[in-house]
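Below is a filled-in request sheet from our internal design queue. Each sheet records the structural input a requester submitted and the sequence that came back. We keep these sheets so that new team members can see what a complete request looks like end to end.

REQUESTER: design group, bay 2
PRIORITY: normal
MODE: inverse folding
CHAIN LENGTH: 221
BACKBONE (tokenized):
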């Protein structure tokens, strides 16, 4: 049975081979190891193997396990990849280094207020609901330009890219292609897309961050 460190190495190799296959520059894609639901002791072997960029879905969960890990591994970079409520903005800004899920003006304003209070200027991604699924967070593709202006010009956020989670029952490539096109139109260079089942596809469509959990840590209980 393979270990998390073995699986991490396999994913890293797979990303590098996909970069070569799709004509991407070496190391163009950053791996976010998604550690949601896994305890600190499960994460330590992956940290010891050299991985430093991690993703969490919930602010409260991250607050419970990452401060201790940061004391031991000072160069950790923590990404919030799950939905954020405005009443958690203070904790999110204090805990995370990058926010991937800005999807409404209230969140943008709350984040900026907290960043100013805490003296931080976190890179942020706008989450786009590329499948326009009613149950899923994110803005509609047609609203990207106006919402980007809202976030940058009125809220003053540092928006660096776009993020999406394709519908589970549709080919991911068409959604990655749409996100790539939207980012290009908006002058944004970063794309957060691709998970355990489709990160190679995402590399082919210009992903700069892929969010991989179960392919590294195993199935969640």
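RETURNED SEQUENCE:
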């Amino acid at each position: 049975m393979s270990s998390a460190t073995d699986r991490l190495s396999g994913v890293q190799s797979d990303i590098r081979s996909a970069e070569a296959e799709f004509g991407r520059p070496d190391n163009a894609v950053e791996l976010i190891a998604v550690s949601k639901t896994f305890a600190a002791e499960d994460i330590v072997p992956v940290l010891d193997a050299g991985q430093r960029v991690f993703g969490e879905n919930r602010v409260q969960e991250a607050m419970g396990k990452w401060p201790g890990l940061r004391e031991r591994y000072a160069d950790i970079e923590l990404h919030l990849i799950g939905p954020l409520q405005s009443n958690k903005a203070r904790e999110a800004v204090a805990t995370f280094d990058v926010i991937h899920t800005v999807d409404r003006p209230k969140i943008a304003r709350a984040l900026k207020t907290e960043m100013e209070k805490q003296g931080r200027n976190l890179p942020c991604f706008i989450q786009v609901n590329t499948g326009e699924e009613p149950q899923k967070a994110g803005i509609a593709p047609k609203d990207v330009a106006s919402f980007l202006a809202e976030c940058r010009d009125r809220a003053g956020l540092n928006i660096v890219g776009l993020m999406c989670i394709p519908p589970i029952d549709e080919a991911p490539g068409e959604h990655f292609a749409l996100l790539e096109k939207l980012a290009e139109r908006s002058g944004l260079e970063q794309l957060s897309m691709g998970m355990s089942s489709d990160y190679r596809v995402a590399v082919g469509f210009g992903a700069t961050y892929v969010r991989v959990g179960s392919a590294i840590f195993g199935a969640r209980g």
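SHEET NOTES:
- The CA atoms of residues 28 and 208 lie 6 Å apart.
- DSSP finds nine helices and eight strands in the chain.
FILED BY: M.R.
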